[in-house]
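Reopening this ticket.

The earlier resolution said the output was attached, but the attachment link was broken on my side. Pasting everything inline this time so it's all in one place.
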Amino acid sequence: MRANTTAQGLILTTLALMAVGVVMVFSTSGMQGDGLPWYGRTYIRQPIFAAVAVAILCFLWRMDYRRLTGWRWYSPAVVLFVLAMVASAAVFIPGVGRGVGGDLRWIPLGPIGFQPSEVLKIALLIMLASFLGRADAPVKSFARTFAPAVALIGISLALVVTEDFGTAVIIGVTSVVVLLVGGVRWYYLAGLVPFGAGAFYRFVVCVPHRWARIDALINPDNTANPATYQSRQSIIAIASGVKPAGLGEGIAKYGYLPEGQTDFIFANICNELGMLGAFLVIGLLMVWLVLACRVATRASDRFGALLAGGLGFLIVFQAALHIAVNVRLAPPTGVSLPFVSAGGSSLLLLSAATALIVSVSSRERHGVS
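Inline output:
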């Protein structure tokens, strides 16, 4: 079996984004961690993660995505979702979960850390696509389709919203899009608005450090609010890209811009490479979006269309949210730039998600079967 033109383009675009990530992570962290063991240095770990991600992408796409479907308890979609829920719940167990920045998001695995929420958001989409993609799925039914799907989404959100609100937003928005595209009645989804508003009040308005981030957008000149610091520094780094410092020569990485390798790597790209770097990243993401949309519209079955469409939207929406945070159109949420930001969990799992999209493309109606 050979990958068609769309699949090849998707692979090459993903590899190009990974290459940008490896270069920029080295550029923004090459002076850090020299006193740490090799596995503790971000600029060494990232190329290793990227190499593994490339292997996953190049080999996993050959798997027939249709093997994931099924609604019985032993089907791969169900098993993966259950394991993802168990892992996400395990972070709350004392001695198992590890806190970063005050939030429990990680499970230590030797010298590296594993972020279960990254698995959960992909496993949920596979589950929803499998559930809605059945030939006999009663997608218009409230009791048989909408209610069970919302229950799955609600359980997933409950496991991550207290510790990782950014991931919860991505899960919630992407899941609603999949339900809407899958044929669920729009007014059923409209009924979720009051619940969303209530969740926003409970987990943002009532949580001081999260509300401070919202207030930083409303009152960006309020220096008494520490949450405005990151946003200001991000804008300064981007604005200084009018006269780019050059690769490796930016100063934002020297403690001026916190989380510059992850949450604010787009600002560092602008700082060092200017508008050329910004247009390169955004252009690659736009090409990636067009190719993913083409895969979804040409899928050979309903499950493949929902799977490719859902995973494609998740990745592009996460990228858009990351860039929005960097240009101060959204509050800091801890969302990484797909394929570019430092971090192993996100890179490996989003590469696996891309491989599934490529698998759908390789078996499209006019593709190679």
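Reporter confirms the inline version is readable. The radius of gyration is 20 Å. The chain is about 60% helix and 5% strand.
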